[in-house]
Amino acid sequence: MFLGDMDWEITFQTEGKPHKLYVLAECEIVCSVDNLADTATIVLPEAVLNEVILNDIQSKIKRGSDVFIKLGYAGDLKTEFVGFVENITTNDSTLKILCEDGLFLFRRSVPDTELKTVTLKAIAQYLVQNIDPAYTVDCNYGISYEKFTIHQATGFDVLKKLQEETKGNIYFDTATKTLHIHPPYIEKGGEVKYSMQKNIENSNLDFKRAIDKKVEVVVESTDLKGKVKSITAGTTGGDRVTLKVGPMSDADMKMVAEAALLKNNYDGYDGTFDTWLIPFVKPTYTAEIEDLDYDFKLGRYYVVAVTTNFSPSGGVRTITPGIKLG
Predict the structure, then answer these.
(1) DSSP, residue by residue, 44-62
(2) Which residues contact 177 (CB under 8 A, 6 or more apart)?
(3) Alpha-helix residue ranges (DSSP H) falling in the chain
(4) Are strands 178-182 and 136-139 parallel, antiparallel or unpaired?
(5) What is the pLDDT of residues 154-166, one digit of tens each?
(6) E strands, 125-278, where?
(7) pTM (2 decimals)?
(8) Residue 13: in which H helix or E strand, if any?
(9) Distance CA 284, CA 287 (A)
């Protein structure tokens, strides 16, 4: 584990009034391109949770309060999470503050509508306009629906449907109020370097090659005339993945099939590895990983997920790498 004084700053804002948290037992932050939401769980130590402090915290921190989490060593803090308080739970004198990123706002209902010849970006903009116009949409996934119906649904319901059907990376950057929609493994954050012999503590990684696994993806759709059609990608006779999508053109169905194939079969790693808070990393980053014992594993990998566990006694990141980028 990295040797250094653990440091943190957690601030809540309720109705414009900031409240800084001065005690902490532990904090876990879970981020993944495969999840619609990043989440954080803040746990307060039992030793200080007398009735007076509990009442004070619960009077200042409410469901929907803004939350900002910074972690690091000896004053060198990085913003790890920006979001909202989803719930506060108490059990056997333990208090947990459960937080969610911008998706929290999009769990509201949106007006029913039927959109024709509509892009993913336009669907996302419809959600933003009806839920929180302060958000912008960053979308470079060029898929369109011939018809997309929203009926008795929340923004979350719609985004979940889009994620399931298109296999896109859909996530929020709450700090910049941006809803992102991208093809898999396209959006690139920063770059970090890791070594199996230097700054990786625990590893259960298995290297896999796409050539060793046969996968067949079938995308099915029913067009506006009620005709069922399908598009296939991958290797016939391999493990079959079937997706049912709304009315789309053949070209858009092909993009979905290729995205699903890429997520199911690639050269890269399965599993996770543990490291420290330094270097800072989050999903969409490119991680250069070297293993001096196996030269063929040397490469740059797409970071799919990062789980950060922090307490005043130490910090660990569990990183899930995915496809090999080069």
Answers:
(1) E-GGG--HHHHHHHHHH--
(2) 102, 132, 134, 135, 136
(3) 51-60, 120-131, 155-166, 250-264
(4) parallel
(5) 999 999 999 999 9
(6) 136-139, 144-150, 153-154, 169-173, 178-182, 191-195, 202-203, 206-208, 215-222, 228-234, 239-245, 268-270, 273-275
(7) 0.93
(8) strand 6-14
(9) 9
